[in-house]
Write a structure and sequence with these properties.
Length: 254
Amino acid sequence: MIEIIRNANAARDRLRGLSRQGHSIGFVPTMGALHEGHLSLVGRAGAENEKVVVSIYVNPTQYDDPDDLANYPRPLEQDLEKAETAGAHIAFLPDYEEIYADAYRFRVTENQLSRELEGAHRSGHFDGVLTVVLKLFGIVRPDRAYFGEKDWQQLQLVRDMASAFFLDLEVVSCPTVRESDGLAMSSRNARLAPVERSIAPEFHRVLSSGRPTSEMESALKNAGFKVDYVERRGERVLGAVRLGKVRLIDNVEA
Ligand code: PAF
């Protein structure tokens, strides 16, 4: 049975004990509503570490839209079953009081990349992400932490934060897992209406088309998306679009 820990100090003590016994710890932070993308991170963590910890915590400080936070699915029982089947040993399920005993008095702010792309459209988002990830790292103290490339900007920022604060862990990036029609797996996909779901794969097709970003933007608008951005960054093209009330992000190698 997967071991469930809700208390931060109990989690820290348990994991410190495992580390002292010589077990390597792989960590997959999540907000739950686990899909194949998350489970691939758990599988990779299991292949590279002796113990795998999954955290499930819907972090309010990374939301600027209360509806988005309220609508985030929370199928805890199924999540625990999926995490266990994928090879997780410990589920850390803190609540707000555990994580934000300081009432968010202390936070991590990055002043460059976090202001662009997603950050330009979601105020305070990356302050919330980086703060909760740093807290989770402090509790779990993993040897390796696993993040999906779908959230490319998050991955870069977590990696940069780990380096900036000399954190003694490896941030491991894992490829985006896609549906057979190319749509990147996301907990938000379940909220797409059938007609929106049929349009959604066009997002990945257009991003992968190799056309100039201005043409991609027009193609997406013509297909029925509202476009927040499509931008080329070095080797990648990144985009964020909206279909009805659902916001999707994706990125591909340019
Ligand atoms: O990618 C996510 O699910 C979240 O941003 C994370 C890393 C679990 C922090 O809340």
